[in-house]
Design a protein that fits this description.
This protein is of the alpha+beta class. The chain is built from 4 helices and 7 strands.
Length: about 160
């Protein structure tokens, strides 16, 4: 199967909104306090046109299977970005697309001059947490920044300066 990672385009918005919300529903995070209610879920392309932001999508044989992005961490240091809205359809998991997306996100973060990458997730998202650990993310004891996702219970950070 032919896989591709590319920058988000406006036409991707409806499919991405469905994938993100579907992933959140799958893990019981389809309520306030999670990304489910974030207004930007319906306008990913527009949201990630902001400075020091990037969003990538994964496709296989031309079909959009998921995406992930980075943006400055709200309420955080100017040296810290946040990995945001990284979700794949269930059938796309376990084939290396998540790792490819994450690598694109981290490369973009370093290109934008970030020194750290923060993320929030759920303890029950085992495969995602394992992927993050493989990429050098470490657990934090409390959240960073002001993301508005006060229901997340797992926080992680990666030092990007070690990658240089």
């Amino acid at each position: 199967m032919e896989s591709e990672i590319r920058m988000v385009v406006e036409d991707d918005n409806p499919a991405l909104a469905a994938i993100i919300r579907g992933g959140l529903m799958e893990f019981g995070a389809d309520r306030p306090g999670f990304a489910f209610t974030d207004p930007e879920v319906d306008s990913i392309f527009e949201t990630y046109q902001a400075p020091r932001s990037a969003y990538f999508v994964a496709l296989r044989n031309g079909r959009l299977l998921g995406g992930g992005g980075i943006a400055p961490l709200r309420g955080g240091s100017s040296h810290t970005c946040e990995l945001q809205k990284m979700y794949l359809l269930p059938e796309a998991r376990g084939h290396g697309l998540g790792a490819a997306l994450l690598k694109h996100c981290l490369d973009a973060a370093m290109a934008h001059g970030f020194q750290q990458c923060y993320l929030e997730t759920l303890d029950r998202m085992h495969a995602a947490r394992n992927l993050y650990r493989r990429f050098g993310f470490s657990a934090l004891s409390e959240p960073a920044g002001a993301t508005g996702h006060n229901k997340c219970n797992t926080w992680m950070m990666k030092d990007l300066t070690a990658e240089v």
